[in-house]
Amino acid sequence: MNTLKFITAGNVDDGKSTLIGRLLYDSNSISTDHLGVLASTNEIGQETIDLALITDGLRAEREQGITIDVAYKYFATQHRKFIIADAPGHQQYTRNMITAASVSDLIIILIDARKGITEQTKRHAAVASLMGIKKVIVAVNKMDLIGYDVAVYEEIKRGFEGLNKQFNFSELIYIPISALNGDNIVSLSSNTHWYKGKPLLEVLEKVEVDTQLENNARFQVQWVIRPQTKGYIDYRGYAGAVLSGDFNLGDHVRILPSNISAQIIGIEKNLQSVDKAVAGENVVLHFDADIDISRGDTIFLDIEDAPITGNQLNSWISWLDNQALQLGKTYILQHRFHSVRVKIKSINKKWDVNTLEFLPAHELQLNDIAQISLQTNQPLHYDAFATNSKTGNAILIDETSYDTVGALMFL
């Protein structure tokens, strides 16, 4: 079964780090040495484990009791491997959440049963939807603090169902939990006898991961390989990742921007010849003719829809810099291994993720999300993010400081 990459999100103190700590602890995924560091003694002399410290590794996080940076943890059960991203709950660290969400298959949104759905809950759901996440687990946490009241759980569930009319998540699963006590984390709890679903870990083990295999085949060249013997080039190979779809020996492909066609006569994976390469694999392609191909060129199957080509495009942007976006300023747009210079022509509308309204805007500040129009200095080959997330995103880089200032999702 495929590795599941998922992110946790929620308000400050909703229990994200504790939940991850509980998952790792109850699934025996913490080393004995690490447990010794996390052990402490409570007021009545009992030894306890501070589960939140498993992910809150920065000194500032430990001192303030909050999550600032994205913490990645890896663990496995008999059924699946997992990569967990513990994202910050503070609004000022929304950009860190976007970083984690961009590579996640699923999001666990924690809701404090005492507080219900908040503006930050809506923000996190909106960001997850914007980043293309379709599968959501709504974990109603701290059920122990409300006496495991089913009425409160059902009210939160109804409220989130109303939100989903705007987000259109394809799969929603609700679980009442207590991360601190372990209710419904690894096994079902007798405290929630009214809950007829599965515990969180079992849901994570069995949920199906969407892949890019069903999308049109896309390959972007990362490196041109030219091994030599006695000064003569043996062959030209084109190394990179299969971003979506699959390529087979004998397939006829087309290369952009040259728009030249060729046939695949060889595929290498891990120095071995194979007949097929699928999404997510790093391979070397060989063609039946020497073609002028460079880093960043796009390869697709000749029988499938071509990527969009143009230098006038519209995009969602999440602004990640402390300095405001400047209209008319030249930035670097990095689209996988291809970079072009770009100017933002206009801000079409800004998304207020708290009220879920679109507002007119003339500037973008840190953590703002908006639709913009861009113009590149040369044609870009891409897909709409909603169609193919692997070829529909890019980052914006300040050409002076080389800081990453924006995350783009093409329309």
Helix residue percentage: 10-25%
Mean pLDDT: 85
Q: In what range is the share of β-strand residues?
A: 35-45%
Number of strands: 26
Global Rg: 24 Å
**Can you tell me the overall shape?**
globular
Strand order of the largest sheet: 4-5-1-6-7-8
The separation of the N and C termini measures: 32 Å
Which structural class best describes the helix and strand composition?
Answer: alpha+beta
Which residues sit in consecutive blocks of at least 5 with pLDDT less than 50? Answer: 31-47, 57-69
Largest sheet: 6 strands, mixed
Structure explained in plain terms:
With 411 residues, this protein is an alpha+beta fold. It has helices at residues 16-26, 32-38, 59-64, 94-101, 119-130, 150-167, 200-206; strands spanning 4-9, 39-41, 47-49, 71-76, 81-86, 106-112, 135-141, 171-176, 218-225, 228-229, 232-233, 237-244, 246-248, 252-256, 260-269, 272-274, 276-278, 282-287, 298-301, 308-319, 330-335, 338-352, 357-359, 369-382, 393-398, 404-410. A 6-stranded mixed sheet has the order 4-5-1-6-7-8, sandwiched between helices. A 6-stranded antiparallel β-barrel has the order 9-12-18-15-14-19. β14 and β15 (260-269) form a beta hairpin. It is globular. Residues 31-47 and 57-69 have low confidence and may be disordered.
